[in-house]
Amino acid sequence: MTFDPTKHSHCRYNPLKDEWVLVSPQRLQRPWAGSYSACHHSVLSFLCVGRVEDDANDNDETANDESQKNNPLCPGVTRPSSKEPNPFYEHTFVFENDFPALLAEIPDPSNVEKTAKDDLFQCHAARGVCKVICFHPNSRLTLPRMTLDDIAHVVRTWMDVYDDLASKYQWVQIFENRGDIMGCSNPHPHCQVWATDFLPNEARIKHKTQKDYSLKHNGNVLLLDYIQRELNDFQKERVVVEHEHWLVVVPYWAVWPYETMLLPKRHVLRFSDLTPDEQIGLGKIMKELLIKYDNLFKTSFPYSMGWHGAPTGSMINDDCSHWQLHASYYPPLLRSAKIKKFMVGYEMLAQAQRDITAELAAQTLRDLSGEVHYKDKKNTK
Ligand code: H2U
Predict the structure, then answer these.
(1) Which Gene Ontology molecular-function terms are recorded (predicted)?
(2) Does residue 178 have its Cβ closer than 6 Å to ligand 1?
């Protein structure tokens, strides 16, 4: 097999920005069910760019089983690209993405050595694997509406998938797109995992910034120092929720209106290092944060979230003590369930801009109930 840039995923370097872009031409071969409006209510309709729904954010929790029988992520349904039906799973279900942006077996470009030295036209093969994790058999549930036991299964599955992929790949990116507005293609509660044999931009930058900080500050860990200063020097003004093991803050440098960072208070390098108590605590604090998010605009709050921890695979034995595990939540809503922040114009061409301060966002989230979901009680604050 020889490398073919029209068929094989690869990364191209942007020397103007010192960034890479992942190109996945094999995804063009995915089946296409026609235009958004032409979709019929069938399994294929779930493969369209979007889905027809009255309220863009809100799942109808009372809908009956009938509406689930065509969803390719549901128990017992046969996905269009699969021979076997999904199992009748009771908690979580993991499968290889049928339309992966990365492939495990890809040859190197024949001119790999030449291109590595080329300042303008650098590229390398991008190897990896993409998985989908269904959180629950019920399409109508979201994480904040699940029980703590359900969420514990999700955390356990994240750890299992992470462990498995971390043994082979340098970076394991767990991420959840929630809501149409974030490009989520399917209402069923799920997340994705993309594992790569290279560090993507965000990982590469965070690896360097945390290492530089550690070298400058006597081996201290950037995010642990940050936690201490948030807790001790700033009267917790950006803290949204604090539990025994975990903390949620609107970071000082937050870009999205209600962006938050969720991190363990103890020094934890990777997802796989969480103790059983921390795993249970994680479920509790996630549920609390996500109920607050839903209560903010009384809607199923859309976001993209994901986990960042120390690199793995071929870097597992490198000194990564400067790393601290953390999750970032990037929600786009600004003033209501329908008014979102656009990252366009100045943000695209110059730099990110925000109106509401991180401190005000934190206070707003802090003051909301994290226990009672607005759907369970009228007039929730
Ligand atoms: P979102 O998290 O953006 O909704 O993506 C869902 C993923 O599920 C998407 O990457 C995959 C899509 O390729 N998928 C399958 O692998 N098989 C299917 O039958 C439907 C969706």
Answers:
(1) UDP-glucose:hexose-1-phosphate uridylyltransferase activity; zinc ion binding
(2) no
DSSP letters, 269-306, are -SGGG--HHHHHHHHHHHHHHHHHHHHHTTS---EEEE
72 lines ligand 1 (CB under 6 A): yes
Nearest residue by C-alpha to atom 20 in ligand 1:
72
Continuous segment of H or E residues that includes residue 208:
helix 201-216
pLDDT tens digits in sequence order for the chain, 381 residues long: 889 889 999 999 999 999 999 999 988 766 543 333 333 334 444 443 333 334 446 666 655 566 677 899 999 999 998 999 999 999 999 999 999 999 999 988 877 767 778 999 999 999 999 999 999 999 999 999 999 999 999 999 999 999 999 999 999 999 999 999 999 989 999 999 999 999 999 999 999 999 999 999 999 999 999 999 999 999 999 999 999 999 999 999 999 999 999 999 999 999 999 999 999 999 999 999 999 999 999 999 999 999 999 999 999 999 999 999 999 999 999 999 999 999 999 999 999 999 999 999 999 999 999 999 999 986 544
One-letter amino acid identity for 306? Answer: G
Cα–Cα distances (Å) from 13 to 24, 61, 204, 292, 301, in that order, read 14, 45, 13, 40, 35
- Structural domains in the chain? 57-379 (3.30.428.10)
- Residues annotated as catalytic are 190
Tell me, using a 6 A CB cutoff, whether residue 26 lines ligand 1. no
Lookup result for tokens 């440098």: 253
CA contacts within 13 A on the Cβ side of 156: 13
Whole-model pTM?
A: 0.92
183 lines ligand 1 (CB under 6 A): yes
Counting atoms of ligand 1 from 1, which one is nearest the CA of 191?
A: 2
d(CA 172, CA 302): 23
Angstrom distance (rounded) from CA 143 to CA 167:
28
Cα of 177 vs centre of ligand 1, distance in Å, is 11
For the Cβ of 185 lying below 6 angstroms from any atom of ligand 1, the answer is: yes
Residue 96 alpha carbon, nearest atom of ligand 1: 16
